[in-house]
Amino acid sequence: MNRKEELIKIILNEKDFVSVDFIAKQLKTSTKTIRNDLIFLEPLIHEHHLNMVRKPGVGVTIEGDFFDKQKLLNTLKQNTTHSYLTPEERRQHLLHSLLINQTSKRMKDLELDYYVSRATIHADIAHLNESLKPFQCEIYYDKQHGLKLIGSEAQQRQVMAHFGPLEPLVEYVMDGSVKSKMTFIQRFNDVLNLDFYEIEAIVDEAQDLLGYTFSIEASLNLIVHIAIAIQRAKQGYDVTLSHELVDTLKQQKEYNIARGISLRIEQSFDVKLSSSETIYLCLHFLGAKRIKELQFKHMSISSDTEELESIILKFIRKVQSSMGLFLENDAALFNSLLLHLKPTINRLVYGLSLQNPLYEEIRFNYEMIYRAIELNIHMFNEAYHIHIPPNEIAYLVLHFAAAKERNVTLIRTLVMCASGLGTSQLIVSKLKRTFNNLHIVDVVSSFDVHRYKENDIDLVISTISLETPIKTIVISPLLTDYDISMIKHSLNDVQTIQFSNLRFLPHHVWIEPEVKSKEELLLLMSNQLVKEGYVKTSFYDSMLEREALGPTLVSPTLAIPHGYSDHVLQSVVMWVKLKTPIHWALEESISQVLLVASTHHDSESHQHLMIQLMNQLEDLVWESTLLLISEPLSLTHQLNQDLCGVIPVKE
Q: DSSP 3-state assignment of 149?
């Protein structure tokens, strides 16, 4: 049926009659076979309300409605895959064919291939072009030549790497099963048409020569990138790299290894790789994620380290504001971001993006941090003309999550044990292993507890009851699971939470004002505060100026617009619960707004308020609970209680 399907496609693709000789040459068979096929197909053609017309010495054509012709093709295609593709699969197949084959596709061929209308193909192109925007590539349609993927070689390789055959990668990385690996290999072989195992052996050889081991996802990504390089080289395409980068990379020890691996690839796949491809491979080695991280002390492949350090510091300041923490003095965070981003930026500049097998898990568990980074990642994109995709953002989240853990308020703890040194050390070890916010100041006997005053110690953990004004938790000498649970429960009472001095006033808590846009709402709030003498008239413009720097969204439904303190006369907070959500930034619409206008003098109080807000947002139902409150005074009490530590007086 495949030959008969191709026969029908040839006839339908021609506007006029097509000769049997021409069809036979196209299908590489005899004219007798074609005539027999036509006799076989004629009843089927009639069943589809079509008419096959023959003209001796001229050829054959099929007359009838376009959709009847498509139904005929569908009948012939019932044993093929294209007629069963989902819209997403069809788009992926179309993009892959443009990437791999590098040939123009005629619209009529695509209609027949996928058994869809021309309008559907146009919709697919529009959908794909949206996805291709970050890579500065585009599917261009020309009526005369058809569809073609437009973009530089580096950009097209970036697209191939990002949209390549990696769908089963996450599953393979996470479970490592034979089934998952075979799925990945099958997909690899189908799309790239190269021997996976041969390239895998080359990557293993590279690891031996380099002296370090790639992570699983980095190894698989490198295999795919080598396959892409082989295909592109065979098609006559070559990457263009800057002289500065070439000169820098040639000084690295990885370059000589890349040269040897390039020769190995040439011998195995009968292909000639240019010197640029060798440099490109060296860049892969330097940018690959490793199980044992490379020390960067004696290596620099970027000439703008000072610029990168400056951007990282600004980036930390932006993200910390959204997180409600002070992180810019965290040297460990700064250094880890610097070491991570240097190779990452170099990878992304040349189209090398790593898949992240933990992406979904990271985004789910650290949603607030992810959103804070996502809102500010444009700083690197704009500075280095790159696109940092979501899977790379997730890697950055882990650095900030670790910084947040380090940022916890330490509880100064005294451990008192009456059972001897061995037992006390066991207790201390368990406490340190279980709690990251306990600072063990000392281990003492009951006679020495009195040496420490309330100003020195926040908590005493003791194996016996004590008479002391300091909060004491009595545990067993073996520190059982019950004791651990009791300590966890009690720590909430021990930690002294610093609340904001700012307060919500009832007339500054609005419920369901009639507004249609962000600008209208901000102007309304600003005018109210100007009238009451809290801010200058220039405060509104300063809010818009701040919004232009980047979105002030802190959750899917809450925004925290703010102006600069120079325009604030007296600190004040406002809360608005909207009747109808309004568009705020990106593709997000919000239902609630917190406006904080703070003077320089009250900046610390502002920070305390933001910390409490971030703590509340970790409770996924907190915002929805506020949305259910319909009375301004009740909402005011709730906000003051949750964010400012004010317990409402019961009447």
A: strand
